[in-house]
Design goal:
CATH topology of the largest domain: Aspartate Aminotransferase, domain 2
CATH superfamily of the largest domain: Type I PLP-dependent aspartate aminotransferase-like (Major domain)
Helix content: 25-40%
Strand order of the largest sheet: 4-10-9-8-7-5-6
CATH architecture of the largest domain: 3-Layer(aba) Sandwich
Number of helices: 13
CATH class of the largest domain: Alpha Beta
Bound molecules: pyridoxal-5'-phosphate
Structural class: alpha/beta
Number of strands: 15
Length: 440
């Protein structure tokens, strides 16, 4: 059981006074340091990390020794190189390495500093390549909170209220197999109904396909609740985009970088997008956004796009060290994500069988989640109970993050030792048992 000290309460109080409110829950986690599978707070409590700090620490909390060494050495050499105006080798080497991980035909990278910027850049690239204006996204998606990406984001109305209108954005339906629409009971029928909806309602009534520059999608919806669509949906989406001369932008900001057991989650669906957006784990803990496009789409005209901090050398050093590690250990990371992911999903499925409150468990590789409901029949979201489960986990030394309306992400670092994965799952199950009022 962790202890909450006065120092913890003080920081929270000062935070509330001086910081704008963000998405923080009431969990009194004042983090101070991290190493491998664990984080410690300022009171000295140790926690197992089942959040990867929002999908960033895929290779371990606080990166690994190689990532940290590279960043530290770069600080003493040169931190900022004005990469938009002057040349530097490191961002180029890193881009070459990243391109080497992409499907064939991908050749150009734009460096930025966050996920939302990576999406902004994808929007700008799609416009300049196609000379078209509109962007189509999906309900329940999350692409960031700056004005271009926010137009596409539609996971929660609280993130959009008073910020619109967003005239560039159109939304279509993303099939959530746990909560099907259109009366479809078969996942493939549901997938086809969603594609049909785009053609019949969006293209035919709202916005002609020849005015749409790009379709932006998450291969697995993250913030929206870790929704894995039917494979057929993503395949048909690819087909629809190609047939209508629309670019397909895959947001791999959360799902990429081995999280699902593959470098890109799109690989699970057997498709290739035209533009990829990446961030989060790409910097090994440092802020990086990357937008990667197919070479045959062309280039940006001089002066049309740049940014002061894109290609920051400390971030690049960390990211480059991280991708070098990943490339050396790719097979190992793939099998870790596959095997631990399989074990974790099995444990989550057992919880689903045991507890009425666990309505659905799902995910790919180590991008997993459990959706909590009042009861399996009504599927009514168990919002209050989710909060209680998260708090109970925290009290017992496990940090987790919510997503969707009543879902909890299960995303430890891919490198987490199996024994800590087991311990974390035990704490999670105990919390579910306690909140649902049943013994294990
Ligand atoms: C899929 C996806 N896209 C975009 C973003 C935005 O990234 P950032 O918070 O770095 O702007 C996120 C962040 O959670 C995300 O999960």
């Amino acid at each position: 059981m962790i202890k909450i000290t006065k120092a913890v309460e003080d920081v929270m109080k000062r935070d509330r006074r001086v910081m704008f409110t963000t998405t923080k829950e009431d969990i009194p986690f004042v983090v101070q340091r991290g190493e491998r599978d664990h984080a410690w707070d300022i009171a000295g409590n140790r926690y197992i990390d089942f959040s990867s700090f929002i999908g960033v620490y895929n290779l371990g909390v606080n990166g690994n020794a190689e990532i940290r060494k590279a960043a530290k050495e770069q600080i003493d050499r040169l931190m900022h190189s004005a990469f938009l105006d002057y040349y530097a080798e490191l961002p180029v080497s890193f881009a070459e390495s990243l391109v080497g991980m992409m499907p064939k035909g991908f050749g150009r990278v734009f460096w930025s500093n966050s996920g939302t910027e990576a999406i902004e850049d994808a929007i700008k690239l799609a416009r300049i390549f196609t000379k078209k204006y509109y962007m189509m996204g999906f309900y329940n998606s999350f692409h960031g909170r700056s004005m271009g990406s926010l137009g596409l984001t539609s996971s929660k109305v609280s993130g959009r209220k008073h910020f619109g209108p967003f005239p560039h954005a159109i939304h279509a339906i993303y099939p959530n197999p746990y909560r099907p629409m259109f009366g479809a009971s078969d996942p493939d029928d549901y997938a086809m109904a969603c594609i049909d909806y785009i053609e019949r309602n969006i293209f035919a009534r709202e916005c002609s396909s020849d005015e749409i520059a790009a379709i932006v999608f998450e291969p697995v919806q993250g913030e929206g609740g870790y929704v894995v669509p039917p494979k057929l949906f993503i395949k048909e989406l690819r087909k629809l985009a190609t047939e209508n001369n629309i670019l397909l932008v895959a947001d791999e900001i959360q799902s990429g970088y081995m999280r699902t057991g593959k470098f890109l989650a799109c690989e699970h669906f057997g498709i290739t997008a035209d533009i990829y957006a990446m961030a989060k784990a790409l910097g090994g803990g440092m802020p990086i956004g990357a937008t990667i496009a197919k070479t045959n789409l062309g280039d940006t005209p001089p002066g049309s796009h740049a940014g002061t901090f894109g290609g920051n050398l400390v971030s690049m050093a960390a990211g480059y060290a991280s991708i070098k590690y990943l490339r050396r250990n790719k097979r190992n990371l793939e099998s870790m994500a596959r095997e631990k992911g399989r074990y974790m999903l099995k444990r989550l499925e057992e919880m689903k069988d045991r507890y009425e409150m666990v309505g659905d468990v799902r995910g790919l590789g180590m991008m997993l989640a459990a959706e909590l409901v009042k009861d399996k029949k009504s599927k009514e979201p168990a919002i209050k109970e989710r909060k209680e489960v998260l708090m109970e986990c925290f009290r017992n030394g496990l940090v987790m993050l919510p997503c969707g309306v009543s879902t909890i992400r299960v995303i430890p670092p891919i490198t987490m030792l199996k024994e800590n994965v087991e311990k974390g799952l035990d704490i999670f199950e105990d919390a579910i048992a306690k909140v649902s009022g049943r013994k294990k």
